[in-house]
Specification:
alpha/beta; TIM Barrel; globular; about 35% helix; Luciferase-like_sf; three-stranded antiparallel beta sheet; 13 strands
Length: about 350
């Protein structure tokens, strides 16, 4: 059995053929798609976060709105770029959104990805520690955020407050119990996956990672997951961690599917450079008739290792078509793989 959700990158553009012409379109359609996915029996609605781009950016208003409109589906991110975040203010936002949803938030956080602008986090008022990198900045913010979610008091109360305080040191409010166990780290390398395990975060692994061995993507990703689980066990955590992978998967069930995804080269990983020093491997997409898709996915070692699968959806094709994409996987593919 697997948890199966969707991951939307939240693109919008006024271009021809786009059904998300404006930021308002993509926000409102994101809510509608989450509602539709819940009705279809999907387990999660996840959203990517990018800054300075025609994509979803500030996640918490959207997460709170989805939480208010749904009742069962998990609501998450994949991922929030922690280089841009005030960890304490983020803890307030996350606590509020989690309470609105009834404890359904699953927050993926990370150092972030290559950006639209140069050192965009500096415009948000943040800079790496002296002698450190922007990756250090992201991990530093993440550790503060993760620690604050313990719900322990740390701030000295005013002796003459406007309103009465509870006894002792004060914590960030609102506090949502259990949210800390639902924080995921988006790891692009084996080392950061191990780091996340040692801290006690769940693991998100996307469709790209550092090319560390030259092996096919799904094999490298499966090894990353196994290293994460070994580090989790060695750290002595008592709960069972969760692991998600994301994939572009399209079951070709009608002429529209074939027109969109049934042509062109597919079925191969690709390799590129995220920067001058970072060689990355990008995982293949899957697009085939359901019976063939079942056979291909059965060979994906990383999908087999994960407990959660996030389907990346082409959000600019609109709610109705994306609901069809999700339904096709749930009804025509997942049962054949034992996921349902």
């Amino acid at each position: 059995m697997k948890n199966i959700g969707f991951l939307s990158f939240g693109h919008w553009s006024p271009g021809r053929g786009s059904q998300t012409q404006t930021a308002a379109d993509v926000l409102l359609q994101s809510i509608d798609l989450a509602v539709a996915a819940e009705e279809l029996g999907a387990d999660g609605a996840y959203f990517r976060v990018h800054h300075y781009a025609r994509q979803l950016a500030s996640p918490f208003p959207l997460l709170a709105a989805v939480g208010a409109k749904t009742s069962k589906i998990e609501i998450g991110t994949g991922v929030i770029d922690m280089r841009y975040e005030n960890p304490l203010y983020m803890a307030e936002d996350a606590g509020a959104a989690d309470l609105i949803s009834g404890g359904r938030l699953q927050l993926g956080i990370s150092r972030g990805s290559p950006e639209q602008v140069v050192e965009g986090w500096r415009h948000f008022g943040y800079a790496p520690p002296e002698g450190g990198t922007d990756a250090d900045l992201g991990r530093h913010h993440a550790q503060i955020f993760f620690d604050v979610l313990r719900g322990e008091g740390f701030a000295q109360p005013n002796p003459n407050p406007m309103f009465p305080n509870p006894p002792g040191l004060l914590r960030v409010e609102p506090y949502s119990e259990g949210l800390r166990d639902r924080i995921w780290w988006g790891a692009g390398s084996n080392a950061t996956a191990i780091w996340a395990a040692e801290l006690g975060m769940n693991l998100q692994s996307s469709t790209l990672k550092d090319d560390e061995t030259g092996e096919p993507f799904h094999i490298q990703q499966a090894k990353q997951i196994r290293a994460y689980r070994e580090a989790w066990k060695a750290a002595g955590h008592t709960r069972t961690p969760r692991v998600s992978v994301s994939r572009s998967i399209f079951a070709l069930t009608n002429d529209m599917d074939r027109a969109y995804f049934g042509t062109g080269e597919k079925g191969k990983d690709s390799v590129g450079y995220l920067d001058a020093n970072t060689r990355a491997i990008f995982g293949r997409s899957y697009a085939a008739e359901p019976d063939k898709l079942i056979k291909e996915l059965a060979q994906d070692e990383a999908v087999a290792e994960a407990d959660t699968l996030l389907l990346t959806v082409p959000n600019q094709l609109g709610v109705e078509y994306n609901a069809h994409v999700i339904e096709a996987i749930l009804t025509h593919v997942a049962p054949g793989l034992g996921w349902r």
